[in-house]
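## Example record

The block below lists the input lines for one assembly entry, exactly as stored, with component labels intact.
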Amino acid sequence: MSSSTNTVCTSHKLQRGLWLSTLALCLCIAGAMAYAQDADLRAPSGAVAGNPASIATTGGGTATFYLVGPSIAVKRDVKLGEEIALSAKELQSAGKYVAIVCSGSCRSVGFFVAPAKPVNLTFLVHPSRAPVGQPNMVSGVALPFDEFHNLVLAPAPVDFQIAGAGVAPTSHRVSTQNGVAWFHTNSGRSAGALQITASINDVSTRRVVQQVASDPCSLRIKGQRNDKGFMVETEPVRDCTGNPVPDGTIVTFTAKDAQGMDTVDAPIKKGIARAQLKGSGTVTISAASGVVMGNELRLGAQ
Amino acid sequence: MRSALPILLVVVTVLLMAVGLTAVGRPHGTVGIVSGSALPGFNSNANTPEQGLANFLIDVQRRNWDRAFSSVERTNDSVNEHAFIQEWTGSDGGLRSFSSLESYDARPLHATDTEAQMRVRFHWSTPVGPMEDVRDFRLVHRANKWKVVWDELPVPNVPSQVIPVNYLRWDLVTGGAGEQWGSGNVDAPHVRIVSMNAVDSAQGAVVMGEVVNEDTIPAFVNVQSTLVDASGNAIDDESSFDKILHVLLPKQVSPYRIDFPNVSLSKVKNVHMDVKATLVPASSDPVIGVMNQKLDTDAQGRSVLHGELLNQSGETVNIPHVIASFYDNNGKVVWVSDGYVQRALPPQESAPFAVEIPKSVAGKVQNFHVVVNQYSLHQS
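Predicted structure tokens for the full assembly:
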């Protein structure tokens, strides 16, 4: 019983001590911050990422210097009255920094480090495959970064150049907004590679969009009898703008006769799909690719 | 008195064994139907067609091939024991090679003093689930015994030949880890559900339809469906599992069916559909033709779609899988059936298939579309 009482008393003492310590610390920090506002610490103006800068101080004696930035925290001894040199490495990340000098009391000053000039352009283009002849099918986003991977937020002109089969070479100049520039464009009329280049200053990045044929257009078939039944084949399969539909595309052939129905899913090879069908007597043959239907062919009995 | 209990136990055990052994091949409940199972049959006297068939099938079930083959009446000298065994155990990595005969039900069709015909429904256990197979047997009375007539001709050997194969194949090359952001993105294939229909069936709700690969590259496709009740809560979430052609080549259309066992559509307010497509390496070989498709009624009065699969390529298809969609006169998918073909499909050879249509939809069916999924042992 007595042991329990002692424990409670000790706990109360500890809590009171902690509370008083916290209060004292808060008062100190508040005092220091209030004092720091009057301190003569001069922040660097126009600091740029990756470039050295300095902070001017007044007074005399030694002090402890703290630098807290987006990806850095530094502590070192400095002499008051002299400039505090900040190395290029310490200022690689763009963003808000706080410099604190403590000598008896603490003084602080904040400053902003801007990104350096763009040396890298991240360029995202969508989609990687685009059917031909579609409005606003291709879009791209460019983000300029400096050599330290800081997003360059200052407005800068980005040139988008588009060239490829079936597309007249075009160029758009777009200014970045909050570090982003973007564009939309139609896909061309011919299948093939669409080269898209984004450039800013001397930096350029290239992406390729594969323009592919659209759905087959006017799928036409022809056929003839052979010893196994019917050999049926399509005419060269093209989309509505005349591009050959890629090899491997499936064409479904269907043959109906009095005995039943035959179907073969045949892939296009060298632009033409072929299938061997059975069937006897008068046979009606049709073809489809995806949701596109072709013509119907009636082959009579031999 | 102390030895009475062990003696009693021994006597009861012997009696039960005798009852159990003599009960093999006897009907379980339905008069005229002989059923078999894994229990050994010892009655070698084939005094009736039922007993003659039961003895034969028990030997087959126990893979006692020498005795089974010697007991049959052969009508053709070209039938040898190897071909007989292959008929039951399959070959070339077909589904039958991985199956075992679980049980059977035999029913007499007609019988005279010298000849009988029996219909047997086989119950196979297979890696893709239980399967049924119906086969008619003719039996003849020879030397005071009933014998099964074995007139099954051996599967002809595929002649040696050279079949040029130059179908397109798609391989997938992935970029390295050090690649610049956005430089190597390849979009997933564009796949679209073109139709969907939800119906109630005897087993529960069924969601079915068709899906098409609209892209120019192959896609691995899976369709998922979530049933949602009136308060917005999900009742069940299922996928198409094997009732879909998973690898869809460009512009290829596949039926899909998603079963929700023990769920009634009356409780369902919404159906959420989701199709997932991934870019995969694929080949457009083998091409399998579906020949002589016809809607018919089988010997048991069921509506079936039957036909023949013709392997038009140069490689063996180990396990062909048929998926058929059935349409009404408005072109709406009213049912999707599937079935595995138990035998491997050698190059340039054909094999019959049949898929069942439920009676409730058989009358509505106006048209159908069959696709063939294939599993080959040398392909992943």
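Confidence is low (pLDDT under 50) at residues 24-31, 37-42 of chain B. The two ends of chain B are 69 Å apart (CA to CA).
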